[in-house]
Amino acid sequence: MPVPILKQGAILIATVQSALTDSDTERLRDDLMQRVSQFRAQGIVVDVTAIDVMDSFAARSLRTIAHMTRLRGAHTVIVGLQPEVAFAMVQLGLAFDDMNTALDLEEGIALLNKKLGLGRGARKTTIGRRGGG
Q1: 40 neighbors 12 (Cβ within 8 angstroms)
Q2: Is 60 exceeded by the pLDDT of residue 5?
Q3: How many domains does the chain have?
């Protein structure tokens, strides 16, 4: 099942809605790489909140996606890891020590905004004294 990828400013949001097959995982990777280039995305959120079981291939693939997108200049945050999934990944030695994670979509976007310095520029332009005001 294809994973929908939405664009929110400079951030892409991929919401995984059900367990991914190996081919689904590869398609997600390819789709994200293509869209990072197409939209010049600076950040990616992969939301796995709906996933209560994740195999080692999918977990390694998420890490690979994060590394590939980083090489393309985009930061990736994995959000919504269920406690059981996180526990199983640690037991299998698949911890995401070198990756950004957040509890939910809101925290993931906030983390990316902070990393990318997004939001601050908008405030500066609205408070600025240019334009006679």
Answers
A1: no
A2: yes
A3: 1
